């Protein structure tokens, strides 16, 4: 039987949790087989697969609504602008953020570069410290590294313990050096570690630092609540294109 797209915002999913088969049926690509077995796709941090609702909405947009967003004073452009802004509202509601806090960019790398070269260039100066972790993806490392070279700032690194977790005692000590910014991945792409992001941001804020949370891995996998996480920026690959309908309850301090 052909699957029907579930429209974002439909609350029936919350009432009756969907079965694995129902979820899989929303992703046409998962009908593919590889080596005689159903496709198992694990690279959602880099590119999330698209459910029917996204595929159909995009198809309809290209066929019937495509026009200049925010830059045209004719009907089609105004319609495209309204759709674009409606999407911003949906993303904001799902992330526990205000719509004015949602900025659409191409990917997590672009978002992190944007923060480093806008906020960073203005607020980080000679002798200032930036605190990163040893589990950062290049996307949350290179922009800060470049900024540090440009401004004469210093980088510090939170170490990882034998279990692949951040050493939070070392983190507390490094915060005593009063960094301007803490850059941290919510979920490590190498280790799979889910960092206690709320605790990490709270500690940073108490030490007077802002936090850039790399949400590339967490965006497609965890329910996110920006107010609770408290990060200054949480770029998330696929946050726009892949709905977060498949919510799961999270542990108290994930
Ligand atoms: C933790 C993490 N950060 C950043 C990125 C880069 O994401 P993007 O391709 O959206 O720039 C990835 C990609 O896999 C990632 O896993």
Q: Considering DSSP H and I runs of 4 or more, what fraction of the residues is helical? A: 25-40%
Count of helical stretches:
9
Write down the CATH topology of the largest domain. Aspartate Aminotransferase, domain 2
Structural class: alpha/beta
Spatial order of strands in the largest sheet: 4-3-5-6
Number of DSSP E strands: 6
Description:
The protein is of the alpha/beta class and about 250 residues long. It folds into two domains: about 90 residues, no CATH class; about 120 residues, 3-Layer(aba) Sandwich (Aspartate Aminotransferase, domain 2), CATH 3.40.640.10. The chain contains nine helices and six strands, in the order H-H-E-E-H-H-H-E-H-E-H-E-H-E-H. The strands form two sheets. It has a four-stranded parallel sheet, sandwiched between helices. The longest helix is centred in the middle third of the chain and has 21 residues. The two termini are about 40 Å apart. Pyridoxal-5'-phosphate binds next to helix 5.
Name the features:
four-stranded parallel beta sheet, two-stranded antiparallel sheet, Aspartate Aminotransferase, domain 2, 254 residues, alpha/beta, binds pyridoxal-5'-phosphate, globular
What secondary-structure arrangement, pairings included, does this model have?
Layout: H1 12-15, H2 20-25, E1 33-34, E2 37-38, H3 52-65, H4 75-95, H5 108-123, E3 129-133, H6 142-151, E4 154-158, H7 168-175, E5 181-185, H8 197-206, E6 210-214, H9 226-229
Parallel strand pairs: 3-4, 3-5, 5-6
Antiparallel strand pairs: 1-2
Helix pairs in contact: 5-6
Provide a brief overview of the structure.
This protein has two domains: about 10-100, no CATH class; about 110-230, Aspartate Aminotransferase, domain 2.
């Amino acid at each position: 039987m052909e699957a029907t797209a579930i429209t974002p915002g439909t609350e029936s999913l919350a009432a009756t949790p969907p079965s694995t088969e129902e979820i899989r049926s929303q992703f046409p690509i998962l009908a593919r087989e590889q080596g005689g077995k159903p496709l198992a796709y694990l690279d959602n941090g880099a590119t999330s697969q698209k459910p029917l609702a996204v595929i159909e909405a995009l198809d309809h947009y290209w066929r019937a609504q495509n026009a200049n967003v925010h830059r045209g004073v004719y009907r089609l452009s105004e319609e495209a602008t309204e759709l674009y802004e409606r999407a911003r509202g949906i993303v904001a509601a799902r992330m526990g953020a205000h719509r004015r806090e949602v900025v659409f960019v191409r990917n997590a790398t672009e978002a992190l570069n944007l923060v480093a070269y806008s906020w960073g260039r203005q607020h980080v100066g000679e002798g200032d410290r930036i605190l990163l972790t040893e589990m950062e993806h290049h996307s949350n490392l290179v922009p800060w590294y470049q900024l540090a070279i440009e401004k004469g700032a210093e980088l510090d690194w939170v170490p990882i313990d034998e279990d692949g977790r951040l050493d939070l005692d070392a983190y507390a000590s490094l915060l005593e050096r009063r960094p301007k910014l803490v850059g941290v991945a919510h979920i490590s792409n190498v280790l799979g570690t889910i960092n206690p992001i709320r605790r990490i941001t709270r500690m940073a804020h108490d030490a007077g630092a802002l936090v850039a949370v790399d949400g590339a891995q967490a965006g497609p996998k965890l329910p996110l609540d920006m107010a609770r996480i408290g990060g200054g920026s949480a770029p998330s690959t696929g946050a726009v294109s892949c709905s977060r309908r498949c919510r799961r309850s999270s542990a108290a301090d994930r």
